[in-house]
Amino acid sequence: MFLINCPFCGEREQSEFKAGGEAHIVRPKQPTELSDDEWAEYLFMRKNIKGIQFERWNHAHGCRKWFNMVRDTSNDQIKAVYKMGEKPPVK
Amino acid sequence: MLNYNQPIKEEKSYQGLQIGEINPIMKLIIRGKKREFLSAAGKSLDMVLPTKANTSTQSEKLTALWLSPDEWMIFSNDVVKKNTNSYETEILLNKNISKLNLGAVVDVTDQYVRITLKGDKIYDLFETGSPFNFNEFRNKIGSVTQTIIAKIDVVIHNKNQNEVNLFVRRSFSKHLFSWMNDSASRL
Questions:
Q1: Is B131 on the interface with A (CB under 8 A)?
Q2: Which of A22, A41, B22, B90 is most buried, by CB atoms within 10 Å?
């Protein structure tokens, strides 16, 4: 259990949120030109690293807005929270 | 408000706590992002929509609750007539917002149940089933929050010192009311 600072509502408990998987995955510009393997790579393959990960989260039981989060998956430390469309503040 | 079946038929009293439903109350959800939307809503409602997170504004007849940066709940302060489900405010908002494509207006009168809680034990009750930290909320009159109580989504509005409005979806209202009574009996 940890607290998440929703960029719209403020600090709330994790149980109010839903994780939405890896962030900043760009949709291929010409999907029809991709091979099945390349398309599957885009559609299904996600990083699942131990360490700093960029993720999408949704404040499902609050404002219902999506936002991005930088989280250390090894200790659940949140490095940054930023709105959709914004650039990540940490690398 | 025709053929309205009240889901919570009784009022319950405990030491330092009274719980009951207030109905019928007009409830609307309005959504929009544009600046024109905010001014059209302000003109139609004769009040300013709260733009600061977790706050509310009030006029003589209506209260507006901030739900998200582009979503507000409007409800009537007083009970409305039982023999009609057409509301002047809704008609005005439809005319000035929906028809001009500035945003959306949805009548949620029958979707949400308004429960009022009174007394000095309100937050003791909430703390038995909610992950939200009510320390700041309880001291700021007009505060609004959307959170979970007993795993049920609720909107809570700090109306006055020791008086709170709680909005819950109708299908969950009976269960929440029964859960609150159970919890209140053990405070």
A1: yes
A2: B90
